[in-house]
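HIT family protein
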Amino acid sequence: MKQQKNLFSHLTAIERTSLSFPAQYLLNQNLLQGKILDFGCGLGNDVKILREKGCDITGYDPYYFSQYPQGQFDTIICFYVLNVLFSEEQASVLMEVAHLLKPGGKAYYAVRRDIKKEGFREHYVHKKPTYQCIVKLPFHSIYLDDSREFYEYRHYNHQRNSSNNCLFCNPYTHLKLLTESATAYAIFDGYPLSKGHILVIPKRHASNYFDLPFKEQSACWFMVNKVQKMLKAEFNPDGFNVGININRVAGQNMMHASIHIIPRYKGDAVGAKSGMRNVIPKKISI
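Tokens:
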């Protein structure tokens, strides 16, 4: 069965002459602080009105305002975007928002709660197939009614996530988080082997990577792909080593699964066979 493509998600954007309900709510609660980004701003109505009210706000939308935002932001808003995207597209938005958010900053997601049937339907104006789905996020809910829910998001290392003493469940605040999704996060290694050394870490507390549900394993590797692009853009490495240590005998020190992404640079190793085979010295020449 051929999967239908989600080509017309942007057609759900509508013209308005007043602030959207979530924007007005956040404004009333004094939550729109500092440098603000409206991620998936649609036609830009909230951006225009909030600027008139004195907010320092930038709008980004891949269809209507396609210049990708530069730098990081104190506050990011993302209203009703996730409801019109497939699951991988949703994860990509979560990762991009996390990457664009300043350490200590906050992002706010608004999702619909009045969707009766998930899937494609013909748009009543444009007569094109538009997609709608129900979305629930593992973030702090700050507002809920029959029509919508608002979530507040902070970086994983800027909150207490577990009562255990695992440093991967409660990573240090001073470490720089690169990106995050609903089930995993990527953070710069505290003892890097090279410039840009990253750990992709599942949020579920599991020592052995193979004990993770397949869906969460897949989410980790989806993040690895995203992280690789981010590292190439920031550090321009010449190659990568990507690997997992499982159990003490294989060099695992933290008993919480993680994937190492280690950028490699010309001249940082001796010999041509200094890659993954180097982990067992007697086998280097094989």
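The CA atoms of residues 75 and 218 lie 29 Å apart.
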